[in-house]
Amino acid sequence: xxxGTVDGQAAGTLRHKIILAxxxxxxxxxLDAMSTRAVAARAGVFPPTIFRVFGDKDGLLEELGxxxxxxYLQAKSRLPRSEDPVADLRLAWxxxxxxxxxxxxxxxxxxxxxxxxxxxxxxxxxxxxxQHMVVRVAAAGRLRMSVxxxxxxxxxxxxxxxxxxxxxxxxxRDLETARVVREVVLDAIAAxxxxxxxxxxxxxxxxxxxxxxxxxxxxxxDLPFSPGEKLLFMELLNRLADVRTGTS
Length: 248
What we know:
- With 248 residues, the chain is an all-alpha fold.
- It has helices at residues 11-29, 36-43, 47-54, 57-77, 85-102, 104-112, 121-139, 147-166, 176-189, 195-198, 207-219, 227-242; strands at residues 5-6, 9-10.
- A two-stranded antiparallel sheet has the order 1-2.
- β1 and β2 form a beta hairpin.
- The chain is globular and about 60 Å long.
- The N and C termini lie far apart (56 Å).
């Protein structure tokens, strides 16, 4: 093996060839059929080549998950960005459900198959994209809890719904379930537009103003705080935001 080559082939070309072969195995035969031997046979290489390129089977699955998720993330990036960040979250939820039902094998690989007790890299990318959208809700002063908790709630509910639908025979699936859960989740994490004007009134919770302030401070470059003071202040804002949704 020379620099930039593996088994006499250009490393990048060989990597892409193996990923395409793994995708073919996954899409045609399912995740249970995903073995290094099956992928090697489909790619026309020897099994040890996969370990030379990806390190191990988990390395191959990580890159396969990213390959499968790329189309979904591209579609998500093209979603219209309106003046209503909650409406945008609604569209993102529907796209998430659509991806799971159209590409169930990739969905399980990215969001459900735990490797060494951790989420896949592709799954982390998807959650990061979701958190960016939740931050917009916070900036609008409409979040009922911290950004992190709202992101976790929406992710957990979304994965739960899609996993349930995937495991249900197609003819028995009730897609209304996904829409009902979507509205329950959005109502739990976000206040309606009119609530912003009422957010400082009697009995109003601190989450909306706290998260709006957190986002505003996060975009402000020159603050009279040391790094430690800023970290403490952000933690206190999170605790204020979550005081009504659980422990503080």
